[in-house]
Amino acid sequence: MVKSKNNLRHFFLLTIGFSWIFWLIVIFINKSYPEKIILKEILDNFAVFVPSIMGVFYVYLETGKEGVIKLLKKGINYKFDLKYYLYLIIMPTILILSFLLSKLFFTINIEMSLFENPKLIPLVFVYIFFLGGPLGEEFGWRGYALPKLNMIFKPLYSSFILGIIWSIWHLPLFYMQDTVQGEVNFFGYTLFTILITILITIIFIKSGGSILAAILFHTLTNLSWGVFPLFYQTRSAIIVLILLILTTGFLVYKNRDIMI
Fold this sequence. Notes:
This protein is an all-alpha fold and 260 residues long. The protein contains 12 helices and no strands. The protein has one domain (75-259). Helix content is 77%, strand content 0%.
């Protein structure tokens, strides 16, 4: 158990460290060589894939090739109860409701290019799935870290810990151009990340440890933010957080047998 805890600490430290190194180089390039767009994209993709790479590495370190094969199989495991697929649309539903409530009570002054060009949504979904974070992160966060944390804490507490670490991992993005994080409040973002982590934990457990379920939830969350970028407007963002808190609280209570 001690070795397992040490490996988990090392996983978090190395994942944050390597990703931050790549992102800090991107920040430097943004300031000094803004024309080097392709290089920035490559380095950003390296940073995004660090969690999954480190997750696979530590699974191999602890369980060998057989463990890695099991981990990768979880990434294509779609055979879980159909009702848990409905969990995947939680964030799109919350954002649609938040959008409608925002329109009802005040004027929305944000650009919604994807909402106005819905034909692009399938392409954006594919891009987000493979390069926008989910595939590059979830084999680490949910494939390796969450099961390890759940061996030490109750899943709800594991989610709080992982959510805070996940938010800290994103920290350099708050100092980069053209990122979602660069336009939002860090503490609000951290609260959002913790709530999302709790929801993914529920889905992950209920789906029998399907990393694919976590990847799909992550993808649809990022995509729905792209379609309804309500985080750019404070009042709309508050509505989103309120609905997300209520939804998460309800689902934690409903699944209290596995979460608390």
